[in-house]
Amino acid sequence: MNSVYSTKFWKTMKLKNVSLLFCVVSLCLAGCVAVDLSSFLEFQKLEEVTVQKAKSWITFNKVLMINVSGMIIEEDGGLFSDVTCTPKVMKAVLNKAEEDSSIKAVILRIDSPGGTVGASELIAREVAQFRKRTGIPVHAQINGLGCSGAYYIAAACDKINIQPSAISGSIGVIAMFPKYRRLADKIGFEQVVIKSGKLKDIGSGMRDMTDEERAVLQSVIDENYQGFLSWILQYRPQVGDRETLTKIADGRIYTAKQAVEQKLADRICFLDETIEGVIAAAGLSDADVVTYCYWESEDANIYSPSVRAAPLRLNMNLPQPLNARNGFYYLWLPGE
Global pTM? Predict the structure, then answer.
């Protein structure tokens, strides 16, 4: 948290809430506690910040820029996390945009390797429904990474622009189930499982996976993968038919040039060029570029984080590193 945000934090928090916070932290350190601090904080409201002024002296038109960055997950990571790419935050931002008649276009500024299947699907659906309800043009600008679940979201936009050095693609599904039986044996850890059916503890890291379990999990992955392909074909028919898409959707990543060649992206350009393009698509000659923040910033510009922080939750649960990765993801995960 930089000095600007830190000053804002302490200035807007009442003294009694500071005392309460210290009490909560003390309790959390004593065990597994998750506390929602939203009701104690006064600044948890989306505020509009202008990140680029229009060239005209006077304009009543705005382009809204929204971040899709970092891991895409169902819930924010709490007070000590900068994770903001959640369905809850996206819906709050789009709802606020829909209430403002001066918002004439939207840019999703994407830099994400993807995330969970559920969160990616929900955010993409919110974007698609927003477009349908409002008729407002929504353009994606991929900076850095726009892979897997992030690409799923980008596909819901009218146009996908990509920075020359960016990476996209990685279309597919991955599931990860760490095995820690041998580690458990070394430290003397045992786990007793009482279950209602033989597949109830499928994916357990305490034993080897059976062929039947692997087949069940593969069927889930295959179904989600086909859903991913159907989504792309629905919103980017220019890619071609399912057979053509399947050939390029084998999990590989693409450079900006390759993505355009495969029709996974429309144009190679930078963020400022995407801003100009979406203004033109909205039938405007000029507009302010704004974003929504939970924290104010005195030096905001088009590269500043859009939603600085999600509504705060103080999570002090004991870590669970051995099974934290279990699940199904639209995610590019190199090095695993």
Answer: 0.81
